Please model this.
Amino acid sequence: MSSPETSHSHGQEHQPDAVEAVVHAMPIVLPLVGGVLMFLLAFIAVSMA
Model:
């Protein structure tokens, strides 16, 4: 795990983590992806019957 202490070197900018870049979109993305997944699963179930 990474240490909680931040070490800054001179001449280097702070690069945001990949998770930190995506977290702000989660309240929008998760319900949309869940809805699409439920629609696809329901479509498959109806088309197989």
